[in-house]
Write a structure and sequence with these properties.
The complex is a heterodimer of chains A (about 350) and B (about 325). Chain A has about 350 residues and is mostly helical. Chain A is about 65% helix and about 0% strand. Chain A has helices at about 25-40, 40-60, 60-65, 85-90, 95-100, 100-105, 135-170, 170-185, 190-200, 205-230, 235-245, 250-255, 260-285, 295-305, 310-340. In chain A, α2 (about 40-60) crosses α15 and α10 (about 205-230) packs antiparallel against α13. With about 325 residues, chain B is mainly α. In chain B, about 75% of the residues lie in helices and about 0% in strands. Chain B has helices at about 1-30, 35-40, 50-65, 70-80, 95-130, 135-150, 150-165, 185-215, 220-225, 230-260, 265-270, 275-285, 290-315. Classes of the chains: A mainly alpha (about 350), B mainly alpha (about 325). Chains A and B meet through α8, α9, α13, α14 and α15 of A and α1, α6, α7, α8 and α11 of B.
Chain lengths: ~350, ~325
């Protein structure tokens, strides 16, 4: 008797008469997976929500922020007659003071920048050390954070995959040499590497930071990819592909790579948070791009003023923490969902 | 075993050579050398251009910077082979000396951070694992993941602010005493950086220990231990923890290496004259021999810590055999 084909693999209505997961439309399947993820991994879902919020802040900064991040806000005069231009002249020129009535010149210190004022309906989180709107600056700072995080993670992942797959697939001398280079990159003190990068390129731009962080990240990605490929290489489907005469490139791209994506996705997600943290640290040390709005630099500015502006460092630090938290939570949830060792008994090990 | 150690040592030689070459290349392509940097810092108008040129030339010759890069590389490698790291451009002392001065401070900070990391991570990791999916587990895990997400320089500046505002203690600003010179003053200075650094690395260790404990607790020998009627304490500590700690050793070694290379952020914030601060100054002033010595020593340390970890693995886990 011929065996029935497994109904799960057939598209369209199943012969058994009930709808299975694979009967659902693609969009519906996507919806089911997302719902399942939200229900089973509430903290992972929180992470995803945080990531969506930061991404939205970075993509639509000008809409979400209510002020220009670089505008220095001046005090608004209480006295309607006051003329700030004349008032400023009057400070140095006594003839102006004699020419105009006192009411015009009395601006009560207007035209002075609004330095670190308390939160109000106009400035939601107050203003920073130069009188710029803090809320808007935090929103614009998300652009820098996301650029660095995604850019560095992308560089590290792309090069890490290529080097790792080739190294593990061919093995032998090539593998030995590549691994010594990876050892070198890992043994090199990372901060000195970043410092040297910053010194070689006279004016540090965001691109320099992204590239140097990405290069630093290649080493660990290569390690992870390599160990995954080493076990995938032993699988029967690889020898099957070799038997029918598939080329090495084809086997690596079509047979091995699709089977090692799980650890890569996890590393990619959780490393973004680390890159964002390191970039903030560099900016805090004054090694960031001076022209960009960076959360690390803002914390430094807040710290230098100390008790005079308690809010600045606090709010910016919260934004930074929540962003990194989002990527960490999402990375952990992905690890649980994709790592088969974490399934089964005990189930939800890790978040 | 002896063969294994020997082979690993031999494999490490090209790694250290690569590191040395890399740092040489990086420092020789740096725009602006030490001499130009130093003379630019002096008053540029005091001498006329010709005598300035002559002075630059003389100093460059003195420091051996006038030779071509291949010649310098050959000399550098020759010196390295004799474990001679050269002389610091800045104070004409052996390059190692300026790092040696900073080492006690960095070491004290590293050890204090590590102790704090361990005394928070180990109990929390155990409790979180044996109360898996309970409220305690969720709370502790959330704390850990939060501690990982908080930038440590931010935590340190917040803590510093509260200490100053509530006048908890005075942080020494002009002196930086070591623990064996002035225990109280030293603790006052090192407390915040040690706790801020320790919590972050502790959170990482806790998460690793927890997942390891969960894996070990599902092993057959743990069920056997329970079945024998052993006390919970014995099962957890003697049977489970001992085996769960093996991978933690790896992380500990690498954490120590990272902490030893100097925590530039904390040393900067609190004015601690540790290795991290020295290296920052050396890179900024292009004091090439000091940078090279630092990088090579840290890299050697990391490489041998890795070897040590692999050997300790074998001692802790007899299933691992070296071939």
């Amino acid at each position: 008797m011929a065996q029935e084909p497994a109904s799960l693999d057939i598209a369209g209505p199943s012969p058994v008469g009930f709808r299975t997961y694979s009967d659902l439309s693609r969009a519906h399947r996507w919806y089911v997976s997302v719902r399942r993820f939200m229900l089973h991994k509430p903290l992972g879902a929180l992470g995803v929500i945080l990531i969506i919020m930061v991404s939205a802040a970075a993509l639509f900064s000008s809409t979400i922020a209510n002020h220009d991040p670089e505008t220095i806000f001046k005090k608004v005069a209480v006295n309607p007659l006051c003329d700030p231009v004349l008032a400023e002249q009057a400070l140095t020129d006594p003839t102006v003071r004699l020419k105009y009535p006192a009411a015009v010149l009395d601006c009560g210190g207007a035209a002075q920048p609004l330095l670190h004022v308390a939160p109000s309906s106009e400035h939601w989180l107050g203003t920073d050390v130069l009188g710029r709107d803090l809320y808007s600056r935090i929103i614009y700072g998300a652009q820098t954070a996301m650029l660095v995080g995604l850019g560095a993670a992308l560089i590290a992942t792309v090069f890490g995959i290529i080097i790792g797959v080739v190294s593990a697939y061919f093995g032998g001398t090539l593998d030995f040499i590549i691994q010594r280079f990876v050892d070198t990159l890992q043994a090199f003190p990372p901060l000195v590497l970043l410092l040297l990068f910053g010194q070689v390129i006279a004016d540090i731009s965001l691109r320099t930071n992204i590239i140097s962080l990405g290069i630093l990240g290649i080493a660990s990605t290569v390690r992870i990819v390599r160990s995954a490929v080493l076990s995938a290489r032993q699988e029967v489907y690889v020898s099957a592909a070799q038997t029918i005469g598939a080329s090495d490139a084809r086997i690596m791209a079509r047979h091995i790579f699709p089977n090692v994506t799980a650890p890569i996705i996890v590393t990619f997600t959780s490393s973004i948070g680390i890159y964002i943290l390191v970039e903030a640290t560099l900016a805090f040390l004054g090694l960031g791009d001076p022209t960009r709005i960076s959360w690390g630099k803002m914390i430094e500015e807040g710290r230098r003023l100390g008790p005079a502006s308690p809010g600045v460092a606090f709010y910016v630090g919260c934004a930074l923490t929540l962003t990194v938290l989002g990527f960490n939570l999402a990375g952990d949830a992905l690890r649980d969902a994709l790592d088969p060792r974490m399934r089964g008994r005990g189930g939800r090990a890790g978040f | 075993m002896k063969n294994y150690i020997l082979r690993r040592m031999v494999v490490n030689v090209p790694v250290i050579w690569l590191v040395a070459t890399l740092v040489f290349l990086a420092t020789s392509v740096l725009p602006g050398d030490f001499v130009a940097q130093r003379l630019a810092a002096q008053d540029p108008t005091s001498t006329d251009a010709a005598s300035r040129e002559a002075q630059i030339k003389r100093v460059r010759q003195e420091l051996g910077l006038d030779e071509s890069i291949p010649v310098r590389y050959a000399k550098y490698m020759g010196d390295l082979a004799r474990l001679d790291f050269g002389v610091s451009f800045a104070n004409k002392q052996p390059a190692l000396d300026s790092l040696k001065d900073g080492l006690p401070y960095s070491l004290q900070l590293a050890v204090m951070s590590l102790i704090i990391a361990l005394i928070t991570a180990v109990p929390i990791g155990i409790i979180s694992a044996i109360r898996q999916d309970g409220p305690a587990d969720y709370g502790l895990r959330f704390f850990a993941i939060l501690a990982l997400a908080m930038p440590n320089f931010w935590v340190a500046t917040r803590a510093l602010r509260y200490v100053v505002r509530w006048k908890l203690w005075d942080i020494p600003s002009s002196t930086s005493p070591l623990l064996w010179e002035d225990p109280v003053g030293s603790l006052k200075l090192f407390a915040i950086p040690a706790v801020a650094g320790g919590l972050a690395s502790g959170a990482g260790i806790m998460r690793l220990l927890r997942s390891q404990m969960l894996e070990v607790l599902r092993q057959d020998y743990i069920r056997t231990a329970w079945a024998k009627g052993m006390r919970e304490r014995t099962v957890i500590v003697r049977h489970a923890l001992k085996n769960a700690l093996v991978p933690v050793v790896t992380v500990l070694g690498l954490t120590l290496a990272g902490l030893l290379s100097g925590n530039v952020v904390f040393e900067n914030l609190f004015g601690i004259p540790g290795v991290g601060n020295k290296i920052l100054v050396a890179v900024r002033s292009r004091d090439v021999p000091v940078v090279q010595a630092f990088v090579i020593i840290i890299a050697t340390f990391v490489v041998f810590v890795n070897l040590g970890i692999d050997l300790v693995y074998g001692l802790l886990d007899p299933r691992i055999r070296y071939s």
